[in-house]
Structure formats: structure tokens, C-alpha cells
Design brief:
The structure holds two protein chains of two kinds. Chain A is an all-alpha fold. Helix content of chain A is 72%, strand content 2%. In chain A, strands 1-2 form a two-stranded antiparallel ribbon. In chain A, strand 1 (131-132) and strand 2 (135-139) form a beta hairpin. In chain A, helix 1 (2-34) packs parallel to helix 5 (140-162) and helix 5 (140-162) packs across helix 6 (164-174). The radius of gyration of chain A is 19 Å and the shape is globular. The mean pLDDT of chain A is 89. In chain B, 59% of the residues are buried. Mean pLDDT of chain B is 86; it is low at 338-347. Chain B is mainly alpha-helical. The two termini of chain B are 31 Å apart. In chain B, helix 2 (11-28) packs antiparallel against helix 14. Chain B is globular, with a radius of gyration of 20 Å. The longest helix of chain B is centred in the middle third of the chain and has 30 residues, at 103-132. Chain B has 14 helices and no strands. Helix content of chain B is 72%, strand content 0%. Classes of the chains: A mainly alpha, B mainly alpha. Chains A and B meet through helix 4, helix 9 and helix 11 of A and helix 6, helix 7, helix 12 and helix 14 of B.
Chain lengths: 300, 347
């Protein structure tokens, strides 16, 4: 009986931990798409965040500086995508695919250049590796990231629906011309939104590399940026919806770990496909009415 | 600025750009670019074997790139070539391990199965778009991961070869292998990985070009991509066109998967592609979505892929620099592509 309870607790905390990076990236996806820019590059931005966090932690010994670097480099890729999507009016999808290739290749390239070892970086100082009182399953760093994720979801929800800037960003995604007519520059608002989007994705990536573990390895984001994209759709472009969807996807990832070796008839590969299948159902509108911002993905 | 970009965006400019970026990447790695290029070219064009390997890489990129450009021409973003390659390869590999017959027939059937596998995968996205107006961008992307999970499950479970240690299907019967590239000018390629699949790929490019330029269907396809509203008003059944275009696009990519299985790997496993389906997007864009230029672009990228290993081994430039260069080429080329109109779907 007590082992059942501890198993459930493990599953609960593992779900929270596995959800964290997806939540950040999904919130980033929400703000970017609400402003009218589809961010296929979330995966690359997470990679940039994860890799640069390790590099700067290694250089300075301080995981806090690593964390800031992760946010910065995620935001930098956001800037590139945002600038390309607004002022160059490039196709957002193509640009996003390009960002992903650059980031994934760049991190692999950087591993060799900086650490002289392909595949994975050396170990660095971990962010908040101490235990939380009464909760042996989570570290203080993980707990802080979980709390911050909830605050971010609250904050973004408040920002989008309750502040003038948030409403203007929403308008950019629905009808950028109206924003121009109101005397504002929708391109600039979109650019800012994608930068914030990249910063959030970078934060999620940094969590993976310097908080959950203490190194960067090739392919460590493992499609979480794309899952986050699915969470945005599943959550119908709302901060809380996307957060919920991200936790839903995180739950399946956690379930895999918990069930590993316990249940043989349910292959883990099948469970890995679940988030993507859910996303397919979501975009087909089978899970209820789904409507993207009207100008999402449309260059202005 | 725009004039410069437009110059750079042509196929020739793209190759030049690739060289400049590659030189930069080498300088960052502390390598003399002359040295780096020497090994890059020696590893890709310096002899019979390197050339054969370059053509193998060219072929692997050409099929998915042709598929991607076919969909792009119809105004549809197929970024699911990776999954379509896998599904095509899976079907060919699963059947090819057990199916025997005259070589020309089995090979033909296996390639056809590859088209069926990729076509189904592209068709699902096409159906979702046609029936529910679901963005093909997201659906093809998600289907990549579903394909990876599905094939991963099958080769680790039901289709796993009892003799293999790793997760892969049983090897293809040797009779089901694609024939080696024919001997030309007394030069034989029997000891390389080069097969007639390069010829099949070029033939596919010619067929697609013929369809684009000489058939009513090709005209309708391009009309759907370039002027969707006009196409709709002139009576073209757009949902049907979407379904057909994405199915065909997937079929061409799936043919590539079958070509890799029957020509190179001789079995199916999930490491069939190191991201050919994503690089194919760059190849299609560099080739200006024109089947003949796509062939040239695929050759250019084939040089990078094949020469990269030699460059890594002898000049010390990490092969991953090639990925970065490919990504940067996509970004720069995208700056021009906004002219290409496309149907605006809800994402």
C-alpha cells in the first residue's frame, strides 16, 4: 500500500519536473503566435538555451550566470526569427526550420570547439541540487523552476488579457492593420513578442541542462520544442490552456519512466507518440473548436 | 540591400554563399579554409569512391527535396519528408526481407511500396487539411514524430530480426537489392554504395518537371499554389488538389526511403536518415522549387555531406559545421521566398 502511495507521489513529482521545460516553451509559443508569428524554432531556441547555459556555467562556475546566458541566447534566436519574420517578411516556417538546423548543428559544433568532446559536455555545477524539506523527489532548483513556471503562466495570462500592451499584441495576431491604424507598429510588437518567446524557450532549455541534470548532450531537447508547439494548439492559444496541455504531455513522459520495466505490454515507443497524436487530433478540431489568431503566420 | 539578396538567392549565389559560410565556419574552428576546402573537395570529388559517395548522398537528398518542392509548388508546406522517408523505408524493408521473385520485379514492387508508405503519410496530412482545414505544417511535423515512434516500436518489437542485436528488420534478400550503378567508360562502381537509384531520382525529377510544365494537372497544381483564389474560382477542386499534392509529395519522399533501404542499407532501421527530410527543405529552396535546379542543389549538398567527414577527419573542422551552414542558407534564402504566395491556413 505504502509503495503504491510512493509510486503515485513519484509519478506526480516526475510529471511536474518533466512538464517544466515544455511549459516554458509553450508559454513562449503562446505569446509569439498571439502576436502573429508561428514559432517552429522553439526547439532550436531550447537547444540554444540548454547549450549556452552549460557553456557559461562551465566558464564562470556559476549556474545562475549560465541560466541568464540560456535566456539570453534563446532570446537572441528569437530576435533573429522575429527580425526575419517582420522586417524581412520571410516565411516564418522556413525561417523556423533554419533556426532549428543552425541551433542543433551549432550546439554540436560548439561541443567540439569549446569542450573538444563530441556528444556531451563535461559536467558543470548544477543549479540548486540540494533537496527540498519533506520532498525528497525534487531539488530546490527544480522546485524554484516549477514555482516560476506557475508565476509565468499567471503573468502571461494577466499580461495578454489585462494590460494594454497585451491587448495590442493580441490585435497584432488578429488584425495587424487595425494596430497600424491605431498608430502603433505591429512589426515592432511582433519582434518583441518573439524575443520574449525565445527567452522563455531558452529558460526551458536551461532547465534541462543545468537544473534537471548538469551537462549538455546532443539531442537533449528531444523534440520538446515541437511538443510545446502542439501544447499551444492543444491549449487553444491561451496561457493556461497551453500550460495544462504541457503538463498533460509531461505526464506521459513521466509515466514512461515510472512504468519502465513494470508493464511490458505497453511499449514506450507507443507512449512517446501520444503527445503528437493528441496534437493531430487537436489541429483537426476533434477536441473542440480550435481557432488560431486570424493573422497567425501571415507576414504583414 | 534587396538587390544583393536577390542575387544571392539564385542557385549559383546560394552555392557561393555556402562557400563563404563554410570558410567562416572553418576560420572559427581555427582551420585554414584552403586546407578545409581541399579536404572537403577531396572527400567528395577527389576520385571514384568519393564521387560515388557524393552521388549516394545526392540521391538521399534528391527524393525528399523533389517531394518537398512538389508540395511547395502547390502552396503547401510539407515539412514531414523525414517521416515519409521512414514510412517508405519501413514498408520496403519489412516486405523486402521476406519477398522473393525476379530481381527487376521485386525491386520495382519494393520501390512502389516505398511510394505507398510515404504517400499514406503525406496523404494523412493532406486529408486533415482537406477535410478539417488543419494546418499541414503542424500535421506533417507531428507525423514525423509519430513515424519515428511507430517505426521504433516495430523494429524493436514485431519486426525485429531475431538474428540482429540492434533494433532493425531482417536483412533484405540479396536478390532484392538495387543493382549497382552501371559501368561507364570502363569505370565500375560495383565496390561502392552507388546504385541505379541516382538514375531513378533524376528520372523522377524529369517526370515531375514534365507534369509541371506539360500537363493540365501540373498547371492546376501550380495555380493552386500561386493564386489559390483564382484557382478556386476557375473550378479547381482545392481540397482534392491539397490531398493529391501532399500524397504525391509524400510518395516521392517515401520512394527515397525505399531507395535507401534497397540500395544502401539493405535493411530497415530508424537511423535510416540523419535528417535528410529537413535538409531537403534547404535543397528544395536552393533549387528554387524547379526539379532540374533541385538536382543541381542536391549535388551541391551531397558534396557537403560526403566531404564533411573527410574534412572532419583531416582538417579538424567538425562535421556539424555543415548543419549550421545548411541552416544559414535556409535563413538567407527565406528572405527572398516571401514573394511566393501561399494559401493562408489557420496554424
Amino acid at each position: 500500500m505504502s509503495s503504491g502511495i510512493s509510486l503515485a507521489l513519484t509519478l506526480l513529482f516526475l510529471t511536474l519536473i518533466k512538464s517544466v521545460p515544455i511549459v516554458y516553451a509553450a508559454l513562449g509559443g503562446v505569446i509569439s503566435e498571439r502576436s502573429g508569428v508561428v514559432n517552429i524554432g522553439l526547439e532550436g531556441m531550447m537547444t540554444a538555451g540548454a547549450f549556452s547555459a552549460v557553456v557559461f556555467t562551465n566558464m564562470t562556475g556559476s549556474p545562475i550566470i549560465g541560466l541568464l546566458a540560456g535566456i539570453f541566447f534563446g532570446a537572441f534566436l528569437g530576435f533573429i526569427l522575429g527580425f526575419a519574420a517582420t522586417f524581412f517578411k520571410v516565411d516564418q516556417i522556413v525561417a523556423g526550420v533554419g533556426i532549428n538546423l543552425v541551433a542543433l548543428g551549432g550546439a554540436a559544433y560548439g561541443l567540439v570547439l569549446i569542450f573538444n568532446q563530441p556528444g556531451a559536455s563535461p559536467q558543470v555545477n548544477q543549479l540548486g541540487s540540494g533537496g527540498v524539506p519533506f520532498l525528497p523527489q525534487v531539488t530546490t532548483g527544480e522546485a524554484a523552476f516549477i514555482v516560476l513556471a506557475v508565476l509565468c503562466a499567471f503573468g502571461l495570462n494577466w499580461f495578454i488579457y489585462r494590460t494594454p500592451w497585451g491587448l495590442r499584441i493580441q490585435a497584432c495576431g488578429e488584425n495587424p492593420r487595425a494596430v497600424t491604424d491605431a498608430g502603433l507598429d505591429p512589426l515592432r510588437l511582433r519582434l518583441y513578442s518573439v524575443i520574449v518567446s525565445g527567452a522563455l524557450a531558452g529558460l526551458g532549455g536551461a532547465f534541462l541542462s543545468i537544473c534537471e541534470v548538469n551537462l549538455y548532450s546532443d539531442g537533449m531537447t528531444a523534440g520538446r520544442g515541437f511538443i510545446a508547439l502542439a501544447a499551444v494548439i492543444f491549449g487553444r492559444w491561451t496561457p493556461w490552456g497551453a500550460t495544462g496541455a504541457a503538463v498533460f504531455f509531461g505526464f506521459f513522459e513521466a509515466l514512461q519512466y515510472v512504468l519502465q520495466g513494470r508493464i511490458s505490454w505497453l511499449p514506450s515507443d507507443a507512449m512517446q507518440a501520444l503527445p503528437y497524436l493528441a496534437a493531430l487530433f487537436a489541429i483537426a478540431g476533434l477536441v473542440g473548436r480550435v481557432r488560431a489568431p486570424a493573422a497567425d503566420g501571415v507576414p504583414y | 540591400m534587396r538587390v544583393v539578396l536577390r542575387l544571392l538567392a539564385g542557385p549559383a549565389g546560394a552555392l557561393l554563399l555556402a562557400f563563404v559560410l563554410a570558410a567562416l565556419a572553418m576560420l572559427i574552428a581555427g582551420v585554414n579554409p584552403v586546407d578545409g576546402f581541399y579536404w572537403l573537395l577531396r572527400g567528395s570529388l577527389g576520385g571514384r569512391r568519393p564521387i560515388a559517395e557524393t552521388l549516394v548522398q545526392t540521391t538521399a537528398l534528391l527524393f525528399p527535396a523533389l517531394g518537398v518542392s512538389l508540395a511547395f509548388r502547390a502552396g503547401l508546406f510539407n515539412i514531414g519528408a523525414e517521416g515519409q522517408l521512414l514510412m517508405g523505408g519501413l514498408l520496403a524493408g519489412a516486405v523486402g526481407a521476406h519477398f522473393a521473385g525476379p530481381q527487376w520485379m521485386t525491386v520495382f514492387v519494393l520501390l512502389l511500396l516505398g511510394m505507398v508508405g510515404g504517400g499514406i503519410w503525406g496523404g494523412i496530412a493532406g486529408w486533415l487539411r482537406a477535410r478539417f482545414n488543419a494546418s499541414e505544417i503542424i500535421s506533417t511535423l507531428m507525423l514525423n514524430f509519430v513515424a519515428l515512434s511507430l517505426t521504433g516500436y516495430l523494429v524493436a518489437g514485431p519486426l525485429k530480426s531475431p538474428l540482429a542485436s540492434g533494433a532493425e528488420t531482417a536483412p533484405l534478400l540479396p536478390n532484392n537489392w538495387l543493382p549497382a550503378f552501371p559501368t561507364i567508360f570502363g569505370i565500375s562502381f560495383g565496390d561502392t554504395r552507388l546504385t541505379i537509384s541516382i538514375l531513378i531520382a533524376i528520372a523522377t525529377a524529369l517526370v515531375i518537371r514534365f507534369v509541371f510544365t506539360r500537363t493540365v494537372f501540373g498547371y492546376e497544381l501550380r495555380a493552386a499554389g500561386e493564386a489559390p483564389e483564382a484557382a478556386r474560382r476557375s473550378g479547381i477542386n482545392m481540397p482534392r488538389m491539397t490531398l493529391i499534392a501532399l500524397t504525391l509529395s509524400g510518395a516521392v519522399a517515401g520512394l527515397g526511403g525505399a531507395a535507401i533501404v534497397t540500395g544502401v542499407l539493405h535493411r530497415f532501421n530508424t537511423s535510416l536518415s540523419p535528417g535528410y527530410g529537413y535538409t531537403a527543405i534547404a535543397v528544395a529552396l536552393v533549387g528554387d522549387l524547379n526539379p532540374l535546379w533541385v538536382c543541381v542543389a542536391a549535388f551541391g549538398f551531397g558534396i557537403l555531406e560526403a566531404g564533411g567527414l573527410m574534412m572532419q577527419a583531416n582538417a579538424g573542422v567538425p562535421k556539424d559545421a555543415i548543419r549550421v551552414i545548411e541552416g544559414l542558407i535556409i535563413l538567407v534564402l527565406a528572405a527572398r521566398r516571401y514573394f511566393a504566395s501561399r494559401a493562408t491556413a489557420p496554424i
